[in-house]
Structures are given as C-alpha cells and as structure tokens.
Design brief:
Elements lengths: L1 E7 L1 E2 L2 E2 L5 E8 L7 E21 L4 E22 L2 E15 L3 E10 L3 E10 L15 E12 L2 E12 L4 E13 L2 E12 L5 E7 L6 E8 L4 E15 L2 E10 L5 E2 L3 E8 L2
Antiparallel strand pairs: 1-5, 1-19, 2-3, 2-18, 4-5, 4-15, 5-6, 6-7, 6-8, 8-9, 9-10, 10-11, 11-12, 12-13, 13-16, 14-15, 16-17, 17-19
C-alpha cells in the first residue's frame, strides 16, 4: 500500500493561491493597466491511497493490479477589482472521494542474468473513477513499457521507456533511476521522470476587442492544444524492517512548471511479500 498527497500551487506559470490569477481583464487601449479585473484564488489538494498486488505466474511472467482511492478537495474565491474598488463575486468549496482508475498490469522477463535483466510490460487503466468529479480520466488508457536493470554490488541502475494511448492524452514516457544500498537493510534512490503529453497545452491570457465598448480590449484565459513536456525528480529511501516487510518513502519535485504542479508530493509505502 502507498499513500501520497499533493497541494497544487501553480498552473503552468500562474500562481493559484495568492490571488494573482487573472481570469478576465478589461483595458482601454490608451491606458497601461486594466481598469476592471477578475482574479481567482484556488486551493487544490489531492490525496491517494493505493493498494497494489502482484503474483508470479511463472518465474518470468507476473500479473498485477492497483486500486487507487482518491480524495480531492477544492476551495477558492473570485474577486473583482474595478478602478481600485474590490468586490467579492463568489466563494465556495467542494470535495469528492472514491475509487480512481483501476490499473491491470502484466510483465514478462525476457532476459536475465546475474548483473541485469530486460523485461516488457503492459498496463490497462480502466475508467472506474468518476470523471465529472475529477477522480478519473473517463476513458480507458493503454501503456506499453520496455524495462531494463543493471546491478553491480551495492549499486543498481534502472531505466524504462514507453508509450500511452487513450486516457486523458496520448504520451511518451521515460525514466532513469539509480539506487545505492547504504546498509544491508537501507537503500537510497534517485530518479528522473520525463513525459511528453500530446494534448496538454499552456494556459494564458488572450486579448480580443470588447464586444460593446469601443477602444477596450478584453483579456480571457485560454488553453492551447499542443504537446507539452513534464519532468520530475524523485528522491527516496527503502528500509527492510524485518523479513520481507519493507517501509519506503519518496518525494516528487517538479523540474518544469507545465500543467498543474505541487512544490513537492510526498509518498509513504508499505510492502510485504510472501
């Protein structure tokens, strides 16, 4: 089982929590600043508890599944400022919880020796999460991966690359990781995660002439539809408490500000095998 939580603070280059997210602005062409703005403040937190399991069908073939339980909370307010006079237009809060998109997985070990291995994996994410409440993608997603590992004494290298079809968007994924056994029961790791998402553009203000007032431009938030690269680094540790019981934890830190990002996303995991 693993538990993680993320408090999102940015949408691309836009701040969500400090009231500077302008959604609509009206500005005369002969003035330097807007005379009328609407600003949004949003606080978004997502927490996930995931139960996962796998079973070796043979010494080279494994089946697995993951069941995520998601809790999402959003609250915020919209403030209008007209010629310096502030007026609260709306405020509210909402939460939703339930099952997210269930994942079914299969992995086949193609090549293995004393220093490393190479495997292929496939995953299907079922649209079991409530799309309207942002608990799921609303469409089935398919992921195909190539996985490689190399081990030399206390040091290991891992890498994988793959493609995703369906779900929220098609994408290309890649990851590289290194782990070092500090002690027989303690391992430290670092990882770089890269994703190239097809339909995941930027959010920005777009200007158009005001429909009724001459000489005024109206700015509104718009979303572009273009491929976007997401990059994160992960720092973690695993501790073999006793027997086959392992306690692990890691933090995810974004390297780029594309999409909805949190400063850090911590995860705590418990693993037991028999």
């Amino acid at each position: 089982m693993s538990a993680s939580t993320a408090a999102f603070s940015r949408l691309g280059d836009l701040q969500l929590r400090d009231g500077t997210l302008i959604t609509v602005a009206n500005q005369f062409s002969d003035e330097d600043d807007p005379f009328d703005t609407e600003a949004l403040t949003l606080r978004v937190r997502s927490s996930t508890l995931t139960a996962f399991a796998s079973v070796g069908i043979t010494d080279r073939f494994e089946l697995g599944a993951a069941l995520p339980l998601v809790q999402l909370r959003v609250d915020g307010e919209r403030l209008n400022v007209y010629r310096g006079a502030e007026s609260l237009q709306a405020s509210g809060e909402a939460s939703a919880g339930g099952i997210g998109d269930i994942a079914l997985r299969a992995k086949l070990n193609l090549v293995a020796n004393s220093n490393g291995a190479f495997a292929a994996a496939a995953e299907v994410r079922l649209p079991t999460g409530d799309e309207e409440n942002l608990l799921g993608a609303g469409a089935t997603a398919y992921r195909f991966l190539a996985i490689g590992s190399f081990e030399s004494g206390r040091f290991t290298l891992h890498g994988n690359g793959g493609i995703v079809f369906g779900g929220v968007s098609d994408e290309i994924q890649g990851a590289a990781a290194a782990a070092f056994a500090v002690r027989p029961r303690l391992t430290l790791s670092g990882e770089l995660l890269l994703r190239r998402v097809s339909d995941f553009g930027t959010i920005e203000l777009e200007a158009n002439p005001h429909p009724t007032i001459a000489g005024v431009e109206t700015f509104r938030l718009t979303a572009s539809e273009s491929a976007t690269t997401l990059a994160n680094i992960v720092a973690g540790a695993k501790w073999n408490v006793s027997g086959t019981f392992v306690l692990g934890g890691h933090v995810v830190i974004p390297l780029v500000r594309n999409g909805l990002t949190a400063p850090i996303t911590p995860t705590l995991a418990l693993e037991y095998s028999w």
